[in-house]
Amino acid sequence: MSVNAWMFAPILTLYSFVFVLHFDPCFTLMLSTPMSSQISQTFSSLGLESKIIDALPLKCKVPTSIQALATPVIIAKKDVLALAETGSGKTLAFGLPLLSMLLKSDEGSRALILVPTRELASQVSKVMDEVATPLSIKTVMLCGGVDKALQREALLLNPDVIIATPGRLRDLINDDAIHLAHVRHLVLDEADRLLDMGFWPDIKQILSSLPCERQTLMFSATLPDDLGALVAETLREPVMIKANAVNSVVERIEERLYLVNKGSKANVLIDQIKENKWPQVLVFIGARDNADALCKKLNKADITTSALHGDKSQVEREQALDAFKNKQTQVLVATDLLARGIHIDDLPVVINVELPSNPAVYVHRVGRTARAGQEGLAISLVSHGESEYLQSIRDLTQRGLPLAELEKFPVTDKPSSGDSKRAPRDKKANRRTAQKKSVKQFQGKAKPKRAKT
């Protein structure tokens, strides 16, 4: 499937920095930026319509790596698989060229952007509208938690850009409330999470409603193995763009991991927040009930806290997020499902009270800080029972991630015998084996079996 790189000469000559070109049987061309490269491009050099550049927010002065790499390729109407870290400016990386092409396209052409959660849909919609609204390009957001009747009315205005979650879009297709025959550009944003959250059946149904002649763009922060099937079914002769190392954590993020007792995590969290006096803290936890319980403990400790999870209504979610953004609450405790699309400028710290079972989720979580070139801190509170999750994260990110202990909170928990693959013969052997295993695992010298994700 590979072609001569000279076919892309008009694209490549747009850049003043060095590309690394790769060839792979699955991709027409692979573009990436060496870690040492510094981008000095301007938006005007990327082939965008002048009206788009004039409509850019004042904060957008120089394109980020993913924006500089992806924009000319997208304008050339190539299918794309783009790997970009969270907070790298990927929404504008596909948004600007899409809006530029819509300005020049025939009347009736549309772009469809699929995202995994309504929170991310809201964030993408906000970013797109900053540029689209001054140009009279109409957008609509279709997601759950909003009356379908209102969405049908919005669709009667013939929007140019549709930003949707797969489930709600599928429902509207089944209700015959929307037709996608005029969609010329499809974006699968956070494709790894779309797969991880089980949206592939919905996406397949949506794809069957789209015209065959279209451009498809896939953006992902990580590259899980099962993403290959989605690439094969949706992209045609794609260009792969790597704006960062695959499955990597942003270098500007300082990662600290503390070994703590499972029952001490709330107290450790409270102590860290009060000692460091961070103005904003985003806390990740696995379950909704745990989020509510932790929220109560923090509020009882005079730390203003809100929870964000699936049991909250859309109004409650928006209120919690707005209060956090406006610094009316200091801490936001969120589950992974609801954390997508949380964009807080200058967020100083992210804290994992529980490690995720899926290591790719760790990359997404810590990517909430150090956005748009800023520096950030990611803290993880790890108990003995999470050793497998920790090793999976180490394997994925290829980082040592050493554990430290906090002097105020000595670790007294013992590793459970369940961490061992084979049960020892007696209790004394069990204790000895568990203790040895604990030391090795948490110093990164032994690798427990990979967690099932």
From TrEMBL:
It comes from the Bacteria. Residues 265-417 form the Helicase C-terminal domain. The keyword Hydrolase applies. InterPro entries: DEAD/DEAH_box_helicase_dom (IPR011545), DEAD/DEAH_RhlB (IPR044742), DEAD_box_RNA_helicase (IPR050079), Helicase_ATP-bd (IPR014001), Helicase_C-like (IPR001650), P-loop_NTPase (IPR027417), RNA-helicase_DEAD-box_CS (IPR000629). One of its GO terms (cellular component) is cytosol. Residues 428-439 have a biased composition (Basic residues). One of its GO terms (molecular function) is nucleic acid binding. Residues 71-241 form the Helicase ATP-binding domain. Residues 407-453 are annotated as: Disordered. Keywords: ATP-binding, Helicase, Hydrolase, Nucleotide-binding. It holds the Pfam family Helicase_C. Signal peptide: none annotated. Belongs to the DEAD box helicase family. This is Superfamily II DNA and RNA helicase. It comes from Enterovibrio nigricans DSM 22720.
